[in-house]
Amino acid sequence: MKEKMLQKFQELFGSEGEIKTYFAPGRVNLIGEHTDYNGGHVFPCALTIGTYAVARKNNDKTLRFYSMNFENIGTKISSIEELKYDKSENWINYPKAVIWAMKEKGYNIDSGMDVVYYGNIPYGSGLSSSASIEVLTGFILKDLFNLDVDMTDIALIGQLAENKYVGVNCGIMDQFAIANGSKDCAIFLDTSNLKYEYAPVKLSNAKIVIMNTNKKRGLGDSKYNERRAECEEALKELQTKLDINSLGELTEEEFEANKDLIKSDIRQKRAKHAVYENQRTLKAVKALENNNIELLGKLMIASHDSLRDDYEVTGNELDTIVAESLKQDGVIGARMTGAGFGGCAVSIVENDKVDSFIENVGKEYKNKIGYEADFYVVEVGDGPKIL
């Protein structure tokens, strides 16, 4: 792929100057969904699939972007002095957003650059193609402009870009997991203070299988921002009595004792998910430490049930693919992953059952939904790198 991208870059932008190739992964969250903006814990890992880029600084203020995934769009041209959001500019709003956020934070980006991108993360699947582009762009800027910025700051800049420029009120998980990925480890992250530790993903005789429903979703026009607002309102109601800064600070018992402070049944359900999901994440990390894969699987299933019933972010496609997964031999656990409203689910499947699992779930899903799902047997990979 690297050779193809270099060829395309030279065809579009010429071969003079220092041209470099970069990679940033996608991510999958094993458990801890919609907890990252509620001050809770998450447990994602970086993948070996992701976004590639070939890049070079240029001698003017021009930004030239090309994606091999959207060749029909052609080269998009912008300027480091003209970084306003423009919906019609499609995918290039993400790299533009990161350049804007870097400049907002005072980093000196004094010339333009030429970049060719290519991603093998399915677009709109919930494996964080947008966060992958954001972190990758931040990493390119760090390298090309010799910026003194660490990977956690690049993650925070990506989040700022998404929140304030793109207009999606996302938490920190996606960018953080991509920026700080480590091979064969998930990241146990406390989103309230960004303290984290690596936990080896030892599944002995099982593999992680990602199931893409092929129901596309866009976070900006989904109910994502609405769910976040509901949780913020529920927190305010709890704060009339409790000295807490986030829903992630509560145990299940503390929530149950105080939930009547929340004056709406809907907001109660949303807050319940945030509290219980955070506790499930803590239990899941312990289960993995103790090599109790069976308990991890049960917690994943409970997570999906809560996302379906209390948080209401799954939908027919995700519910169908998870339900069909759980009927199969050798399945340890399954749940939706990502923001929901389409996208992907993740399952843990015994090695010798993976092929029959993919065949059976694929067949039943197509029968019920009318179109095919895609399946990826994935490995846990590192964060961004120069290739």
Please name the defining characteristics of this protein.
alpha+beta; 11 helices; single chain; Ribosomal Protein S5, domain 2
What do you see in this structure?
The protein has 387 residues and is an alpha+beta fold. It has a domain at 2-199: 2-Layer Sandwich (Ribosomal Protein S5, domain 2), CATH 3.30.230.10. 40% of the residues lie in helices and 21% in strands. The protein starts with a helix and ends with a strand. The mean pLDDT is 94.
Structural class by sheet pairing and helices: alpha+beta
Tell me the series of helices and strands, N- to C-terminal. HEEEEEHEHHHEEEHHHHHEEHEE
Shape: globular
Q: Class of the domain at 2-199, according to the CATH hierarchy?
A: Alpha Beta
Summarize the topology:
Elements: H1 2-13, E1 20-29, E2 41-42, E3 44-57, E4 62-67, E5 76-79, H2 93-104, E6 113-119, H3 129-144, H4 151-166, H5 173-179, E7 185-190, E8 195-200, E9 206-212, H6 224-238, H7 252-258, H8 265-289, H9 293-309, H10 316-326, E10 331-337, E11 344-350, H11 354-369, E12 374-378, E13 385-386
Parallel strand pairs: 4-6
Antiparallel strand pairs: 1-3, 1-13, 2-7, 3-6, 4-5, 7-8, 9-11, 9-12, 10-11
Helix pairs in contact: 2-3, 2-4, 3-4, 3-5, 4-5, 6-8, 8-9, 10-11
Brief overview:
The protein is of the alpha+beta class. The chain contains eleven helices and 13 strands. It has a six-stranded mixed sheet with strand order 5-4-6-3-1-13. Strands 10-11-9-12 form a four-stranded antiparallel sheet.
